[in-house]
Structure formats: C-alpha cells, structure tokens
Amino acid sequence: MSLPVEITLLGVGSSGGTPALGCTCATCTSTNPKNKRTRASAVFRAGGQTFLIDTGADLRQQSMRENLLHVDAVLYTHPHADHLHGIDDLRAFCWLQKAALPVFGNTLMVEHISSRFSYTLLSPNNFWDKPVLTLNEIGDAPFEFGGVTITPIPVLHGKWPIHGYRIGNAAYITDVSEIPEASFERLHGLDVLFLDCLRENPHPTHFGVEQALTAAKRIGAKRTVLIHMTHELSHEALSARMPAGIEVGYDGLRVEI
Ligand SMILES: [Zn+2]
Ligand SMILES: [Zn+2]
Ligand SMILES: [Zn+2]
What we know:
alpha/beta, Metallo-beta-lactamase, Chain A, seven-stranded mixed β-sheet, 14 strands, about 20% helix, about 30% strand, globular, binds zinc ion
C-alpha cells in the first residue's frame, strides 16, 4: 500500500490573485467562491509530518482559514515573490512551536533567501518575534525528512531550474514551462497531480491550458488538479471543458490518497 497523503490547496491563484485588483471581468466579479484565488501554496501531510509548499503572499489568511497551526518543514519551489514573500508569516509557527523551522530549496532558492531575507536566518531571541529558519540546500536527489521521502521534480520555469515535489503518490508542479524527460520518469503511478495552468494561451514561463492538458495526459495521474490560474480562467467555464480525470483546483480543496 502506498503512503497515505493528505493535501490541502491553500491557494490556486497566480501572482496577482483572483479577483485582480480593479478588474471587472466575469471571473473577477463572479460570486462563485471557487473564483476567489489566493496566491499558490499547499500543505502536504504524510507520515505524521506537515509540509508547507512555498510561503505565498497570503500565507497568514490561508493559515487562519484552514486552521493550520503547525508546520514541520517548508519545501520551496522557487523564489518568485508570490511563492516566497509570505516568509515573514512563518514567525507564527516558530512562535507556537518555540523552535526553528527547517526550509528546503535549490541553490537559487538558498541564494534568494540568504540575500533578500537574511533576518530569518538569525538566532532566536526570547520573543520569537521573527521567523527563525534553518536553510537546507537540496539538489535533485530524493531526500528524507522525519522518515518521509521527498522527491524533488526538476522542471523549467522559463530559464530558471526550479522544483516540483512528490511525496508518496502525490505531486505538486507549479510555475512550469517545460518538464524535462528525466522528470517524467519521476511521475509514474501518481494518484494525484497538481499542475500549473496559468491562462488560456501559452506563456514564456508557464503552461497554458493546452500544454497543461498535454502534460497531464502523458503523466497519466489518476486525478489531475489544475492550479496557479489567472482571472482569465473561470472555474465553471474551464471545468466544463475538462476531460475525464482532469479538474480545476480551488482554494481549500482537500485530497486524500
Ligand atoms: Zn507563481
Ligand atoms: Zn478579471
Ligand atoms: Zn514563478
């Protein structure tokens, strides 16, 4: 039997979120809660560990909404602002846990956190009023944390080499424009795949609808959930076009495998 994993999508929005500020399009003015998208992030729970994927700009509100009170480690995909700038909100978990929080990312990630958020790498004071992080640089090789195997999925986000992640038979790939051949090998036998689908048309650094569907079909997960969408894609209209096994994600979606 494969490892049980419970995933909660904290946010499925693109960098600007949906609704987009000042926009009056049909998606942005929709009353369907599935068209309210905060910045992309997810929680994976497996083997008694709680992994946060990215610290999106809406992390505090997402944590309140989902009653997320404990995080064991953060797995970073890449250092764009929409995936990183909630880093200051990690202070709440450090305060609750009175412990430093391990975070993992590739070389690019480590460079950006060290230079842009160096204050998060200081020793804790008595107040735990800042995030206290231990920064772990990872390569493409699978690694263990708390007895759970985490498999990085190397993908390209434009020219940037970034990471998706696989835990058990669940994988999360956001902000992708190309999946290298070797990474497809790491995506066999998935029960669920969360996959970037920015907008209708291709984008230099993201999959559009057609590319996401092509990759999803090739990977062949039992269930594929599209994430990281702009307001161009309305939940209802996109859902109506999806083939069997592919669905449109929304904030708060919970999947258990
Ligand atoms: Zn993004
Ligand atoms: Zn709009
Ligand atoms: Zn990005």
